[in-house]
């Protein structure tokens, strides 16, 4: 490709809200075979809502929610915001937080008014030594409805289950159809549990799912997709997407995402949704075809 054609192509892309931070990406995109998507905030809104709250015997729902919300007030995870909104909506008074720790990819733990409160995925409970095997059917049921199940332990005893749901962006189904029409394979990489990830993937016709990926594991998941020399584009928005955005053949950041993601990407999608990926690949194919 000539420098002039690249300039024209990236100029037209900019008019569509697709910013090429590196001009070479316009050429590389043409040869991409797989588009790998982060789930939360990329194909979903990234704004979950609390949908379920089931206290264990001996615990009151408002007591569990107030304790969990107090701990989550210290977390920056979108799940934390969902729980806080629900607690505020019920006018609950949050206790005094004496300590807090986030365990990335697992959950959070803190001390509230002298009580130890642990909240997170089933794998977090297992890691803490709390038995959650009895809830497998419940986890599967919530997952099948594309909800993310969470567990709460208070002072070392299982105190309840919560679930949050993060709606798929209205533009996502159409964008995935368009990627398929372009002959591309679509994959999803997520920290969410397998049942939830598979339900979301099934509803969208996503070809390949890599669930339960820890925050530092996205690059390894990407390497798996690149096996056999397949060229892979990765689309993400979060801090923990930054390494995969840098490592992918082409990294595309959602423009409404974090600064770290944007700075690690080759392409920035100002529209904030996946239609930008379709436009970027379409333009790449049109531009490079004209000059070969
Ligand atoms: P994702 O970006 O896909 O949500 P994360 O690695 O951030 O992936 O989180 C993976 C899982 O860890 C979440 O689905 C949730 O089960 C648990 N988790 C992480 N942070 C929190 C939190 N603040 N509160 C409760 N659970 C959490
Ligand atoms: Mg995300």
What can you tell me about this protein's structure?
This protein is elongated. α1 (3-15) runs antiparallel to α13 and α4 (61-72) crosses α5. The longest helix is centred in the C-terminal third of the chain and has 17 residues, at 275-291. The termini are close together. It has 292 residues and is an alpha/beta fold. The chain has a 7-stranded mixed β-sheet, with helices on both faces. It has 2 domains: 3-45 and 168-291, HAD superfamily/HAD-like (Rossmann fold, 3-Layer(aba) Sandwich); 49-165, Calcium-transporting ATPase, cytoplasmic domain N, CATH 3.40.1110.10. It contains 13 helices and 13 strands. A hairpin with a 2-residue loop joins β7 (148-154) and β8 (157-165). It has helices spanning 3-15, 24-28, 39-43, 61-72, 78-89, 122-128, 136-144, 172-181, 194-204, 218-225, 242-247, 259-264, 275-291, and strands spanning 18-20, 34-38, 49-55, 97-103, 107-112, 115-120, 148-154, 157-165, 185-189, 208-210, 232-236, 250-254, 267-269. Adenosine-5'-diphosphate (ADP) binds next to α3, α5, β5, β6 and β7.
Question: In brief, what are we looking at here?
Answer:
It is built from 13 helices and 13 strands.
Structural class: alpha/beta
Summarize model confidence as the mean pLDDT: 95
**Radius of gyration, rounded?**
21 Å
Structure summary, number of beta strands: 13
What's the tally of helices? 13
The end-to-end distance, rounded to whole angstroms, is 7 Å
Strand content: 15-25%
Count of the separate structural domains: 2
Biggest β-sheet, characterized? 7 strands, mixed
Please name the CATH architecture of the largest domain: 3-Layer(aba) Sandwich
* Strand neighbour order, sheet with most strands: 1-13-12-11-2-9-10
Unreliable runs, pLDDT <50, ≥5 residues?
none
Q: Ligands in the structure?
A: adenosine-5'-diphosphate, magnesium ion
- What is the CATH superfamily classification of the largest domain? HAD superfamily/HAD-like
Shape: elongated
Order of helices and strands: HEHEHEHHEEEHHEEHEHEHEHEHEH
Helix content: 40-55%
CATH level-1 class of the largest domain: Alpha Beta
Protein name: P-type Cu(+) transporter
Subcellular location: Cell membrane
Family: Belongs to the cation transport ATPase (P-type) (TC 3.A.3) family. Type IB subfamily.
């Amino acid at each position: 490709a000539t420098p002039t054609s690249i300039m024209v192509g990236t100029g037209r892309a900019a008019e569509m809200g697709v910013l090429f931070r590196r001009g070479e990406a316009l050429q590389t995109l043409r040869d991409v075979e797989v588009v790998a998507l982060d789930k939360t905030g990329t194909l979903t809104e990234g704004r979950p809502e609390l949908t379920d709250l089931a206290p264990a015997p001996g615990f009151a729902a408002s007591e569990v929610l107030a304790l969990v919300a107090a701990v989550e007030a210290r977390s920056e995870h979108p799940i934390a915001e969902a729980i806080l909104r629900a607690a505020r909506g019920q006018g609950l008074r949050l206790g005094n937080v004496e300590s807090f720790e986030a365990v990335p990819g697992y959950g959070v733990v803190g001390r509230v008014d002298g009580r130890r409160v642990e909240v997170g995925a089933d794998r977090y409970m297992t890691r803490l030594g709390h038995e959650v095997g009895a809830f497998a059917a419940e986890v599967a049921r919530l997952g099948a409805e594309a909800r993310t199940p969470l567990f709460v332990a208070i002072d070392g005893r299982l105190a309840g289950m919560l679930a949050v749901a993060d709606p798929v962006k209205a533009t996502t189904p159409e964008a995935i159809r368009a990627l398929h029409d372009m002959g591309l394979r679509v994959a999803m990489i997520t920290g969410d549990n397998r049942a939830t990830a598979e339900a979301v993937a099934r509803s969208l016709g996503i070809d390949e799912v890599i669930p339960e990926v820890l925050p530092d594991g996205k690059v390894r998941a990407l390497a798996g997709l690149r096996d056999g020399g397949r060229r892979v584009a990765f689309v993400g928005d979060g801090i923990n997407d930054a390494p995969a955005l840098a490592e992918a053949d082409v990294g595309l950041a959602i423009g409404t995402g974090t600064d770290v993601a944007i700075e690690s990407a080759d392409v920035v999608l100002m529209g904030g949704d996946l239609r930008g990926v379709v436009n970027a690949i379409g333009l790449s194919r049109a531009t490079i075809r004209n000059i070969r």
